[in-house]
Structures are given as C-alpha cells and as structure tokens.
Amino acid sequence: MSAGAEGSGGAASGVPEGIEIDGVTPWLVERIEGLTPPLTFTLIAGGHSNLTYRFVDGKGSAYVLRRPPLGHVLESAHDMGREHRIVSALENSGVPVAPTYGYCEDPAINGAPFYVMGFVEGRVLHDAESARPLPEREREALGLNVIDVLATLHNLDPDQVGLGTLGRKEAYLERQLKRWNKQWEASKTHEIPEMEECSRRLTEQKPEQIGATIVHGDYRLGNMMVGDGRIRAVLDWELCTLGDPLADVGYLLNSWILPGETEDAVTPTAIGGFPGREALCERYEAATGRNLDGINYYRAFSHWRLAAIGQGVYKRYLVGAMGENREMDLDAYKLSVHTRAEAALALLGG
Fold first, then answer.
1. Are strands 51-56 and 62-67 parallel, antiparallel or unpaired?
2. Same domain, residue pair 35 and 140
3. How many separate domains does the chain show?
4. In what order do the strands lie in the sheet with 100-104?
5. In 3D, which of 16, 34, 273, 307 has the Cα closest to residue 181?
6. Is 13 exposed, middle or buried (0-12, 13-18, 19+ CB in 10 A)?
7. Whether 43 contacts 53, CB under 8 Å
8. For residues 221 and 269, what is the distance between their CA atoms, to the nearest angstrom?
9. What is the pLDDT of residues 190-248, one digit of tens each?
10. Final residue in a domain of this structure, among 83, 118, 153
11. 141 lies in some domain
C-alpha cells in the first residue's frame, strides 16, 4: 500500500509473480462495483512476510491485493482470512484502516488465499531519510496522532467490534514468554547470558495484566500510511491478537528513537521534531486511564522478544536455510541480538 514504492518481481508477461491474472480479474469484477479491466498489477511490498500488490483498472482507480509469500509457508503465520477479518472489523471504529472489498479462500483462483482493499494515498516512513521531507509541524502532529490512534485501538471493546474470539484474552505475557523462550532454545547458536538473565527477570517481575484489548503487535511508523501530519491507514495486522495493551506501548516506545540517543539511528523519529516518549506516555495515560509507571518492563520484554526473533533469523541464514546469494552481514546481525538483550536487561534494572 506504499505510494511511490518500487515495483518488482515482474514476469515476462508484465504480471508480477504471485498474480494469476486470468483467475483474479473475473473474481474482482464480481466484487468491486465499476471495476474496469484490464488490470495492471505491481508488487509494492514483498519478502518473507505477506506480499502486497497495487493494481489499477482501466479508469485509473487503484486497489491493493494481499496474499501470502510464494512457496510453502505455515498457513497460520500468513492467515489472509484472519487479517481481512481484523481490517474489516475496524472500519468506522476510529482506527484508520483501508476499506476492504472481499476475501478469497479458494486457492484455485490465485494459487493461495488473498484479500482486497482500497489503496490509500500517502507515504510510509520506513527510515529517517523517508521522514526528512516532513515539515517540523507535521512531525509533531503525526507523533501525537500515532499515540492517539493507539489509545483508540486499545479503548475498543473487542466483543463490540466482532473480534472477541480473535485470541485468548488472559495471560498474554505468560504465553509470550513461553513462546519466545522456546524459540530462543530452538535457535540458540552460542551463549548470550543476558538473554537467560532477561528471561528469568521477565518471569519474576511479570506484572498483572489489567484488562485485554486488541493488540496490533507491530505498531510503528513503518507500518502506517501517513499524510498531512496524520495516520491515513494502519497497515500490517498479521500479528494482531488480544492481550495486554501495554505490550504495544512498550514496542512503540522502543522504536521511538530521538536525535542523539544512538550513533547509527535510522528510525524516522531520529531526524527530530517528533514529540518525546514522555509526552506520548502522558497522552496515552490521559486517553486510556492506564498507568504507565511500569512501562520499562514492557520495553524490556519487547527488546528481548525481538532478540529471540532475530536469533531465529540469524540461525536460518547461518545454516543456509534462506538460500544462497542473500546479502546478509552475519556478524552485524549476531551483534544486534546481543545489543537487544543488553538493552532489555538495562531496562529491567541490571
């Protein structure tokens, strides 16, 4: 859904890999009123996550199609029906999302399930350079809107919007700690004492969960379409579940790197002009009534979880499971796992 993103993956016919034009076109014509073939598809986001295509009809109207990665993947990790359900449920909820047009579960149509939504104009701030053109006043306004939208999401009653059965509501941290400890043990290639110590402290210091909300799971500027100092659409709901809302807050704060905090910061907020973490926390507390005095626990948990995920990626590259000819600085990636574990331990007070 990223406006202006580079297309890739085109086949000789001009249709990107992953799109079976003869099956998809009639399916879309039946479901989108006024859609006028021929349709032109461009891959705008790919990799190991779900694939996102922008397509334009003969009148110039633009839409988005989302499908799982090519090849064999775990169905549960790339559940198109679940993602479509979430985005559809959030329309008119106050959380900005793209309008949805339909979900196809029949793999005979396009080789895999997919869903279709409207194309939202704007830009995605993947890094500092992409954020640099934003005027200072827009940076401040956008930062405040980011936390306002998160508060709106967390204030929704999952049952009222039809997402009450999206996942288990209770014991979110307990389940996450169990899952990522298992991941760490399965992917460990060398000893990182900080990871073991973090796991122990996270278990010992685990706070009581206060209520359960819709948790995005990857809430950061890189997963938002923005424009004019506001979020136009929150993207990438594949990790969304029910659980402890403060996990989203901790994750967002970790990505909210301000100027001078680290030497090589490449996050959008590192260019300056965005509100600080304290301002975000105060605004979130006012909007939700939730106390963030213990937010450092959730920030530590987020670093530790990402370290476990990163170790899994590192091992897959190390043993060649990701294929040959993939550019990857293994030493840098190995170091990043250590760095996250150390950051988590520091936030836990040790």
1. antiparallel
2. no
3. 2
4. 40-45, 51-56, 62-67, 114-118, 100-104
5. 307
6. exposed
7. yes
8. 9
9. 999 999 999 999 999 999 999 999 999 999 999 999 999 999 999 999 889 999 999 99
10. 118
11. yes
